[in-house]
Amino acid sequence: MERINTYPGHIKKPLFYMIPLEQWIPDELHIMLRIWDRLWSLVIAELKEFNQFDDLCREEIMQEMNQIGVKFQFWKDQGMELYVIDG
User: pLDDT-derived band of residue 77, with 50, 70 and 90 as boundaries?
Assistant: First the structure.
């Protein structure tokens, strides 16, 4: 606990303070899924910003996902654009 402030960039104390951060093993799958989710959100936001997120764009995305073998679909829910990846 006395070493809590010795980790650069950390503001809050660790969730399990009794385990040194050097002993943690990051969950690479969930880290990559979070990165993918964030990047995908940025792609969609940029398409919307330039008014390019239309039916043609959605169809092209679905075709590309289908080509790589990923089930993918868009749907609208209460005025919000959502997407599903079903692998």
Answer: low
Tokens 């008014």 correspond to: 51
Q: DSSP assignment, residue 13?
A: P
Find tokens 């764009």 and name the residue.
Answer: 57
Q: Where are the beta strands (DSSP E) in 18-59?
A: none
What residue type is 58 in one-letter code?
A: R
Residue ranges of domains in the chain: 37-87
> Which pTM was predicted?
0.56
Residue 74, H or E segment: strand 71-77
Q: How many CB atoms lie within 10 A of CB 47?
A: 15
- DSSP, res 65: H
